[in-house]
Amino acid sequence: MTSRVIQKFQVHLKAELENLTNLLPQGRDHRYSIKFRCSKCSDFSELIPFSGEVRTANLVMKCKFCKVESTANIELPTQRPYTAEDSGKFAPWVVIEARGIEPMEYAIQDLCTAEGVDSGTVFSDIDLSSGDWAEYDEKAGNSVSILDIETKITKA
After folding, report:
1. pTM
2. DSSP code string of 24-89
3. Which of 30, 61, 115, 146 suits 18 as a labelling partner, its CA being 20 to 30 A distant?
4. DSSP H or E stretch at residue 144
5. Mean pLDDT of 90-99
């Protein structure tokens, strides 16, 4: 495989949602944190935060080992909410288009939003960087939480 080959990768999310639905990254400038492997030399990057803003390439990086330049794009139109029906199982989250690198690990390290299942209350500024999150939905009178977050990446 050469650095000029474009490949698409699907990020899948799995979490236990309690009384929540429609979990999404917050805002169009959400920062996606991904660890990549160079397609040429197989060297790994650190976890790199980059924005999904619309532009030619969301991320341009040069491999520290072989110096090959690579790019990655978050395909924002593919971003789908993680719903109450998805809870407890892997579901598609977003597609990454990459050239010269392969995403190996995805971490939610920026803010997200979700809605209360019973109330429609919008919860914003959900910080999942430490893993779990819990709050109380006053309108519905019940607890809400996001627990046991996992991600996996497959070829799309």
Report:
1. 0.90
2. EESSTTPEEEEEEEETTT-PEEEEEEEE--SSS-SEEEE-TTT--EEEEEEEGGG---B-GGGTTS
3. 30
4. strand 142-155
5. 95
